[in-house]
Amino acid sequence: MTDAAPYRRRIDRITDEDFLDGLADLVPADIRTMRDDCREEEARLSYARRLLHGQLDIALAELQRREGTDADSLVSTLTTILTDEAVGGPRSVSNSEVYVPTGKQGRRRGDRVLEEMPLGRLPDLTDPELVAAVQRLKEEEQAISALRRKVMDNLDRLQQELIARYRDGAASINDVVRTVEG
Questions:
Q1: N-term to C-term CA, the chain
Q2: Cα–Cα 20 to 30 A to 143, which of 54, 126, 154, 169?
């Protein structure tokens, strides 16, 4: 792992191709720190995906309403839209930690599209505007999913390294399970 410039965001470091370089030479504490960084980023990306999925489900429901496949108003079906039986089908619940945004993270992937999505104006959008909004949400969800997959791959690799060291006797159980707070 190379030293990152101070301006470089954690997500950029974690998804960089060289993030795991030199892993075999790192001490368990450094690997744990990298693992914990991955866990935090995975939670943030999962949160952004959930927000995008909710907005996408609402926008898709509005498209269905306009196509005549759902006669109810968007507002009257909102509860159904945002439950497990949403337009996109059942959702799986992640094992990741609950992420609570603090507002101190700065702009992250998905922020712009989430801020610009005019949910309150969906019924007023033209059909082409609504289709474009749905497409943008889908593209952003795919991009966030790709980032999340990379983070999860790195997280898995870091966890495997810690476990292998424990099994080989090169690390204690405390070296493996201790978190940043612990």
A1: 24
A2: 126
